[in-house]
Amino acid sequence: MLPLHLQPESHIPLYVQLRDQLRALVHTGELRDGDRIPASRELAGQLGVHRTTVANAYAELESEGLIRGHVGRGTFICGKPPRQFSPPPRSNGHGGATRWESLFADDRGDEALARLLPDIPPGAIAFTCVRPPESHYPVEEFRRCANAVLRKEGRRILQLGSTDGYEPLKRGLLEMLEREGLSVRNEQLLITDGCQQALDLICKAFLRPGDSVAVENPAYPGAPAIFIGARVRILPVSVETDARRTGYAGISLDALESVLLQNRVKFIFATPDFQNPTGTALPLAQRRQLLEIAAHYQVPIIEDAIYSRVRLRGTALPTLKALDRTGNVIQIDSFSKISFPGLRVGWAIGAESAIERLRLVKLATDLHTDQLAQATLAEFLRRGVLARHLGKMKKLYLHRLEAMEAALAKHMPDGTTWTRPDGGMSVWVTLPAGLDATELLIHVRERGVYFIPGRTFYSQNPQPNTIRLSFGSLDEKEILRGAQIIGDQLRIELRKRQRGERHNGMSRVALV
Amino acid sequence: MLPLHLQPESHIPLYVQLRDQLRALVHTGELRDGDRIPASRELAGQLGVHRTTVANAYAELESEGLIRGHVGRGTFICGKPPRQFSPPPRSNGHGGATRWESLFADDRGDEALARLLPDIPPGAIAFTCVRPPESHYPVEEFRRCANAVLRKEGRRILQLGSTDGYEPLKRGLLEMLEREGLSVRNEQLLITDGCQQALDLICKAFLRPGDSVAVENPAYPGAPAIFIGARVRILPVSVETDARRTGYAGISLDALESVLLQNRVKFIFATPDFQNPTGTALPLAQRRQLLEIAAHYQVPIIEDAIYSRVRLRGTALPTLKALDRTGNVIQIDSFSKISFPGLRVGWAIGAESAIERLRLVKLATDLHTDQLAQATLAEFLRRGVLARHLGKMKKLYLHRLEAMEAALAKHMPDGTTWTRPDGGMSVWVTLPAGLDATELLIHVRERGVYFIPGRTFYSQNPQPNTIRLSFGSLDEKEILRGAQIIGDQLRIELRKRQRGERHNGMSRVALV
């Protein structure tokens, strides 16, 4: 075991402590050239920290040239350039089966993303889904759109297309954005296979291994998954979830500025509208301030606007891109939340030079986005079906959000708090300190209720007593029943604690 | 200028020469810590070599820790760990417009890929296209398939789907593969957004910056573009195009073995069936030998099978995957060449552990492939329309191939040779030594004829006197007329040379 001692209470981030202690061990000679150090997963387990903490420390040390990963063999201290390669001895010419595991490039960050899609038995009450419910899809109108475009322009749709997007869809999107108050030129718009791909393209175009990105913590795990996969360091920025305490909800500007002061940061990743998982929306003044901070530190922003059109009450706020005067923001967006996630169509808006770069990267990634989906969505937009459909869905979501709030107020025990989103599809619930959402899930699952424990969304310092409850796919009755089951179980857990039952796992967690 | 002297005639690859000379300059102290060295593009220009040569040398030196790229600043000699970061001085809080160019992660290899899609004026004779001609698309039958699946399973199609693929399409593909003699389990098949994405996912899952991949040279530029973008080193392996001289056509097994002997190689990328651009198909004995070599050196193979179903004459050969007994091959394939490139649907077949890894990487890349395209293609396959359509297209392509061969025999001057493909969509033409295809293109373009100069397909040692002529999109008359125009121009160029006209650019090239 390495002599490492991390102090969770310290103001110094855990990964910085770990990085500095490992560096010191090399400098004092306790770790030497060629020494193997534990895999990030293993060391995280030993230290009782999140794997991202270790991964971040290793990424820094690797970029300094102090350690070096050898796929399939492990991570090693590296003072000298690696030895020359000598070919393997001539064998019998018939090697055995390939051990693919030994070839994996690295541990990747997709696990959290995979956890967002648990197997849910039929009939369960699943607070897990942030996808529009298919029961309300206007399939017949969509089918007519598909028919119309295949009749009118079938050959063009089925032939190889343009990397920047299918022209009628681009035109329709530019008009929609114009109506919403955002003037964008054709050269500033790139069609992608959804937000996830937009982020992947940005990562490829602009980020190198060892670069750093400031990311909301908690955040949608799809963003960290991409950065971790590209060996980009994630600098977590906390999210204010209690506006009464801090004056606003959304990405913490103090935390952000502190990260920008202490690190060379290549991008800020932020979701000002109905952030997943917290549901928070950054107020206008803080949006302006965020842009000013970014401009001051000369760090561009990736704005995830995927929920910006899913505002259910209150007045719409301009997106960061709409407020951006310097071309500092790349906005990524998608049809997933406003229409159908089964069609993988999204877009990115940014300065012309940035979009041109992303276009070249997309060309090498998948040539272009599927044109049948693009053409049909263009028609869906052109006929006004999208706007009508979204209007109906927003009414439905609002009823469900109100039912969610009523159910929480009715069933949650004292000491439980939750965010008050004006849009999106999720409420973020904080249980009384010491309770563990994963433990809670084990119990309520037996009664047919599912949710995503909040820890899934953290890239650092996961809060075990948080929960994401998504309401978009459940009707009012299911929401009420689900909240009641969660509330009942919470009361049981709280009583156990009061009785001082020390043999219970959840109580143990409370003592740590 | 750095004191570098490369010898193109040497048996030592140019990038190895460059790498060793740069390393020596550091060791002798002529290059010191912090010294800036030219960008790869710049140095390539100075040395008169291909940029990939410099990029490969730099990639090796970087993986040795001897040089280090700083985005926006350049590449530097690096003996010591980089200096600590200090934050920028507090400015006026209103930075100017973002200079996105300064943020690009690196020079990427997409240019060659972009050159494959030149702007062609209407009415031109374009030997540039390897896409199926849209004039023959069975749009009406396709539209009926789209209608049927949207009627039957519209909600499921439009809802978020499974990362490994839409189940009815996977089932259909497994049945098709079974009929073709390849037994694959569901867990060994991943649906992707085409071959290009399959390669991108493989790159993310298995390759790290500085890793090496053996790639056919010349090759379809989409493969090198992905590897270069991921800072993976490309080790070019020559392709035999003259079976009469070497006994077979296709990837050179001698060259491959020599690359595997001298380098630690992570993957072999090969296209045994109707390789783009050369049209060569590796004979059965050489396929077996390729698998043996790969097994001996324990290097897995990525098999690009995109043209394997576009065999126009002769007997079909088993793919590498069909011959693979050890799980050493990942085969990538697509609907692009057998149906419609505008739908981005392809697949990868491999060992279960490899496919599971690719699935997780795909989840983080774009969640899943568009389901409307998947479902419609599944129906297109199920109804037998795909097989009928492909049968018709193959007849059409065969006529065009025969017309191409007749036209070349009739119009090409002596000293011109070309491959005799039995499938695919391209013939590879080698002009008399000393002629330059780019120069030729400038002249024939004026007469409305377009082709892709062969140099576009090389990652090293481009042969300026090679041409890819793709016949799939042209009718017999256009092919004959186009070949005549090319032949006429070639005769003009040859006469110029005979007259000893030294002022002409093409002749100058001939003297080098």
Please outline the major beta sheet of chain A: 8 strands, mixed
Q: How many whole angstroms does the radius of gyration of chain A measure?
A: 24 Å
- What portion of residues of chain A belong to β-strands? 5-15%
Give the terminus-to-terminus CA distance of chain A: 22 Å
Query: For this structure, what is the CATH homologous superfamily of the largest domain in chain A?
Result: Type I PLP-dependent aspartate aminotransferase-like (Major domain)
CATH class of the largest domain in chain A: Alpha Beta
Task: Please estimate the helix content of chain A.
Answer: 40-55%
Fold-level CATH name of the largest domain in chain A: Aspartate Aminotransferase, domain 2
Morphology of chain A: globular
Major interchain interface with per-chain residue totals: A-B, 110 and 108 residues
The CATH architecture name of the largest domain in chain A reads: 3-Layer(aba) Sandwich
Question: How many strands appear in the DSSP assignment of chain A?
Answer: 17
Mean of the pLDDT scores of chain A? 89
Number of domains of chain A: 3
Query: Ranges of chain A with pLDDT <50 over ≥5 residues?
Result: 80-94, 504-512
Structural class assignment of chain A: alpha/beta
Tally of helical runs of chain A: 18
What can you tell me about this protein's structure?
Two copies of one chain form a homodimer. With 512 residues, chain A is an alpha/beta fold. Chain A has three domains: 1-82, Orthogonal Bundle (Arc Repressor Mutant, subunit A); 111-130 and 388-511, Aspartate Aminotransferase, domain 1 (Alpha-Beta Complex); 139-385, Type I PLP-dependent aspartate aminotransferase-like (Major domain) (Aspartate Aminotransferase, domain 2, 3-Layer(aba) Sandwich), CATH 3.40.640. The first copy, chain A, has helices spanning 14-27, 40-47, 51-63, 111-115, 139-158, 167-179, 195-206, 222-229, 243-246, 253-262, 284-296, 320-323, 352-366, 371-382, 385-411, 437-446, 476-498, 505-511; strands spanning 36-37, 67-70, 74-77, 125-126, 189-192, 212-217, 233-240, 250-251, 267-270, 301-304, 329-334, 346-349, 417-418, 426-430, 449-450, 452-453, 466-470. In chain A, strands 5-12-11-10-9-6-7-8 form an eight-stranded mixed beta sheet, with helices on both faces. In chain A, strand 9 (267-270), helix 11 (284-296) and strand 10 form a beta-alpha-beta unit. Chains A and B meet through helix 4, helix 5, helix 7, helix 8 and helix 10 of A and helix 5, helix 7, helix 8, helix 10 and helix 11 of B.
